[in-house]
């Protein structure tokens, strides 16, 4: 039933010389372009992400915030469990 709407079969496409010429150029070109984009550091500049040798200040701020909340949470849970014993 393939080809009933006018499309070419898959076997016909991959045996075509035109298919291999196009893909033998485009696939390596995309790979090389991606490699250059990352290796030159342009990806860091375009997306605004810090480079590996830079510090991540947002991580330390988040770490301090999480650990600052951990102590009151533990004491709050401890006081709740202590209140259960007191009220009985």
Automatic annotation (TrEMBL):
<dbReference type="GO" id="GO:0009767">
    <property type="term" value="P:photosynthetic electron transport chain"/>
</dbReference>
<dbReference type="Pfam" id="PF00283">
    <property type="entry name" value="Cytochrom_B559"/>
</dbReference>
<keyword id="KW-1133">Transmembrane helix</keyword>
<comment type="function">
    <text>This b-type cytochrome is tightly associated with the reaction center of photosystem II (PSII). PSII is a light-driven water:plastoquinone oxidoreductase that uses light energy to abstract electrons from H(2)O, generating O(2) and a proton gradient subsequently used for ATP formation. It consists of a core antenna complex that captures photons, and an electron transfer chain that converts photonic excitation into a charge separation.</text>
</comment>
<comment type="subunit">
    <text>Heterodimer of an alpha subunit and a beta subunit.</text>
</comment>
<feature type="transmembrane region" description="Helical">
    <location>
        <begin position="20"/>
        <end position="44"/>
    </location>
</feature>
<comment type="similarity">
    <text>Belongs to the PsbE/PsbF family.</text>
</comment>
<keyword id="KW-0150">Chloroplast</keyword>
<dbReference type="InterPro" id="IPR037025">
    <property type="entry name" value="PSII_cyt_b559_asu_sf"/>
</dbReference>
<keyword id="KW-0604">Photosystem II</keyword>
<keyword id="KW-0349">Heme</keyword>
<protein>
    <recommendedName>
        <fullName>Multifunctional fusion protein</fullName>
    </recommendedName>
</protein>
<dbReference type="GO" id="GO:0020037">
    <property type="term" value="F:heme binding"/>
</dbReference>
<dbReference type="InterPro" id="IPR006216">
    <property type="entry name" value="PSII_cyt_b559_CS"/>
</dbReference>
<keyword id="KW-0472">Membrane</keyword>
<dbReference type="GO" id="GO:0046872">
    <property type="term" value="F:metal ion binding"/>
</dbReference>
<dbReference type="InterPro" id="IPR006241">
    <property type="entry name" value="PSII_cyt_b559_bsu"/>
</dbReference>
<feature type="domain" description="Photosystem II cytochrome b559 N-terminal">
    <location>
        <begin position="6"/>
        <end position="34"/>
    </location>
</feature>
<keyword id="KW-0602">Photosynthesis</keyword>
<keyword id="KW-0934">Plastid</keyword>
<keyword id="KW-0408">Iron</keyword>
<dbReference type="InterPro" id="IPR013081">
    <property type="entry name" value="PSII_cyt_b559_N"/>
</dbReference>
<feature type="transmembrane region" description="Helical">
    <location>
        <begin position="64"/>
        <end position="86"/>
    </location>
</feature>
<keyword id="KW-0249">Electron transport</keyword>
<dbReference type="GO" id="GO:0009535">
    <property type="term" value="C:chloroplast thylakoid membrane"/>
</dbReference>
<feature type="domain" description="Photosystem II cytochrome b559 N-terminal">
    <location>
        <begin position="55"/>
        <end position="78"/>
    </location>
</feature>
<keyword id="KW-0479">Metal-binding</keyword>
<keyword id="KW-0813">Transport</keyword>
<dbReference type="InterPro" id="IPR006217">
    <property type="entry name" value="PSII_cyt_b559_asu"/>
</dbReference>
<dbReference type="GO" id="GO:0009539">
    <property type="term" value="C:photosystem II reaction center"/>
</dbReference>
<keyword id="KW-0812">Transmembrane</keyword>
């Amino acid at each position: 039933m393939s080809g009933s709407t006018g499309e070419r079969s898959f076997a016909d496409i991959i045996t075509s010389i035109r298919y291999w010429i196009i893909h033998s150029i485009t696939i390596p070109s995309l790979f090389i372009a991606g490699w250059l984009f990352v290796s030159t550091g342009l990806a860091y500049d375009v997306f605004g992400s810090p480079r590996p040798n830079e510090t991540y200040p947002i991580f330390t701020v988040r770490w301090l915030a999480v650990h600052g909340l951990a102590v009151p949470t533990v004491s709050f849970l401890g006081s709740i469990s202590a209140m259960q014993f007191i009220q009985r």
